[in-house]
Description:
Two copies of one chain form a homodimer.
Chain A: H1 9-13, H2 16-36, H3 49-60, H4 70-73, H5 76-91, H6 93-103, H7 110-119, H8 128-153, H9 161-176, H10 195-209, H11 212-223, H12 226-229, H13 236-259, H14 270-287, H15 299-311, H16 324-339, E1 345-346, E2 349-351, H17 353-380, H18 385-396, H19 411-426, H20 428-435
The complex binds potassium ion (K) (2 copies).
Amino acid sequence: MRTYDPRWRWANNISPTQLIILFYLAAVLISTCLLALPIAHQKNTDLSFIDVLFTAVSAISVTGLSSVPIHEYFNTTGIILIAFTMQLGGIGVMTLGTFVWLLFGKKIGFKERRLIMADQNQGSFKGAVSLMRQILIVILTIELIGFLVLGTYYLQYFPTAKEAYFQGLFASISATTNGGFDITGQSLILFQDDYFVQFVHMLLIVLGAIGFPVLIEVKHFIFASNEERNFIRFTLFTKLTTVTFLVLIVMGAIVIALLDSGHFFANKSWHEILFYSLFQSVTTRSGGLSTMDVGQLTEQNELFMSALMFIGASPSSAGGGIRTTTFALVVIALYHFARGNKQINIFRREIHAEDLFKAVNVTIFGILIVFTSAVILASIEPFSLTEVLFEVCSAFGTVGLSLGITSELTDVSKVILMLLMFLGRVGILTFLYSLHRKSSGANYHYPKERIIIG
Amino acid sequence: MRTYDPRWRWANNISPTQLIILFYLAAVLISTCLLALPIAHQKNTDLSFIDVLFTAVSAISVTGLSSVPIHEYFNTTGIILIAFTMQLGGIGVMTLGTFVWLLFGKKIGFKERRLIMADQNQGSFKGAVSLMRQILIVILTIELIGFLVLGTYYLQYFPTAKEAYFQGLFASISATTNGGFDITGQSLILFQDDYFVQFVHMLLIVLGAIGFPVLIEVKHFIFASNEERNFIRFTLFTKLTTVTFLVLIVMGAIVIALLDSGHFFANKSWHEILFYSLFQSVTTRSGGLSTMDVGQLTEQNELFMSALMFIGASPSSAGGGIRTTTFALVVIALYHFARGNKQINIFRREIHAEDLFKAVNVTIFGILIVFTSAVILASIEPFSLTEVLFEVCSAFGTVGLSLGITSELTDVSKVILMLLMFLGRVGILTFLYSLHRKSSGANYHYPKERIIIG
Ligand SMILES: [K+]
Ligand SMILES: [K+]
């Protein structure tokens, strides 16, 4: 028998997934208030409420789409606030919340641990708290290294050391959290010939988008002794997500290169083609930074990139979309369904039918949401279906790539993009679970009857 | 022990679904040869092979898309051949094959019964032969009534009785088989103010697209005595498919009317809006005839109608697409998945998880196929994504509505549309089953491991 305090009844009735959504909403609210402060704005500019809200949602969801040019409307204070918001969103409101708890030395109770578990989708309560601490250490270490490398390298690009390191810090946070915001006004186009800068950015984006569990497992492996390594077994999740992630990047780059071989890449050298297509493929995972104006690509390439953005990043990462694992499971489900297999094995493990069912449902929900949003945008905006589909997929995948139309959209469309960014970051599964009533099982059974599928 | 004739070994290794595909291919081949005969063509015309093939595939799959204006290129003989081909495709190669067997008095063996069962997706062998006979009787009766009513009514439209009844016969076959071909060159636009003609056509289209099992069950009910009726129980399939079919038509008409309320319907009377939107909604189930130039509708309406066409008709009907039952099961799956229900009941029956899994897989396959085709067409044709998506969905749903671009497509695009029509008619599930090896179950089990979905 546990003691029961009636004042906390409402909190006990809230599910972990509902709490996560409440936390994200609170984070958006706070960021909006902060970014609305006049001290964050450039002089003589007038930001509308919807644009401040859009920037806050975009930063918390680490998307990076912006309805106004950031550097024209926000001053250094504003940019620091945006970086802080990205950090908050990228590492996750829950992780940061846990960190605060740890700092203040409080013992983390069952409720909070359940919360963390649901956000990072971990299958067991055990070690959730230590996991959170590890996440923070890993991410901050990556960001620190990125900041030092980029800041130092930027000394040749910027007039003062202060500016170089400020740009380096923002770039490192923006890449690692997959925030995708740029304060130069032209993303990484400035560095389109500097392969070192591009390589560092790609590395940071991948580390932020490949999923925290993968980072933690790899960290364990690296720091383990030779003897221990023989006993370390990577989880099925880590194997599946890493393979899918890398296959998407490599295949993505190849297809992007092929689809524009007669157009944008027609007169480019092999190393230009390699870096342009590779960077654009990596960035569709959820990065959002870009080394070119993607509007210069062919329509089929923009549609292909829309599909890549729809897939998004790995679960428990800074990215959005339906997630790489969902995509992998759908591909596996379709392949085995087409072959008529009853039982599905990968990496010598059998997959739960329930997981496959989840994956295909999430995918269909995603398609319905994205397609409906695109049809609404296409009908109220003067842009083509391809253009709005690109922007919609970019928002849902919390990628932030843009054909440059977001700033010209009406307020209704901006609200739709905000909802997509929020949903993409929270994840369809978490969002749906937040709608569940606590008890949903029926105790009676009707007779089963088959249906012709057609 | 049964006797075994080695000469028929290959036939025993062919699965029923593979045989169905072979029969359809044979039907396309024969129709192509017939339609290529110069006696079927108008004088001084020159039909290319690809256009003859396109017409044959379109007729066998009862789609009705045409790459050339039928009445300009085919004479009366050609039109009769097309009507015959539609009849063949609409009633189904299998049904007709069975009928020939019955006519010749041969006892239908196990193999052939299995064949019929697979084509009509019936769950038991029992009564399959008698079912086929009933199908033919029902369809021919409907066509005969349609022919007599339309032919007689057309006396006021056409100069001679012969022409009126010829037009009535073609119209009845085209509507009942959901063939959708028109020999007037402008579909039913000629009858856009004649609500009687439209009503008869809608009725015939619905009867052809609602699925043979429904017709048979309703026929049983109608011809049963009052006492017997108390014991007749409609199957879950009939209930689900009929409700879905009617909901799609009514909701479809309402949305079509709303999406163009400020545009095409702006200055129309209530009865014009009613009949225009209702007819266009009915025709997207798979009919393909139309009372207006659908290109006059808004872009969002064309996209909405594309989605309706993608869904298509009921299984075991003359239509295509992913089928109404698949759509219904996906909606049910999504609804229950979103609510977190473990067990899914409709009409006091529990649905098999396997059927739901089939439905979502078929849907994702459909989306992938349609989207990929649209991207290819958009990249090689000078038309917008919306335009090619409409044409692609029309082909996949074997609907035959067109924004008028099919005749201007390149040969590659025509081949893609042909493949879509074929796949839409055969059905994704039958097509996938035809790829199966006979034995596909593994005898060993790997340990199961959970995956984070995201
Ligand atoms: K991003
Ligand atoms: K049709």
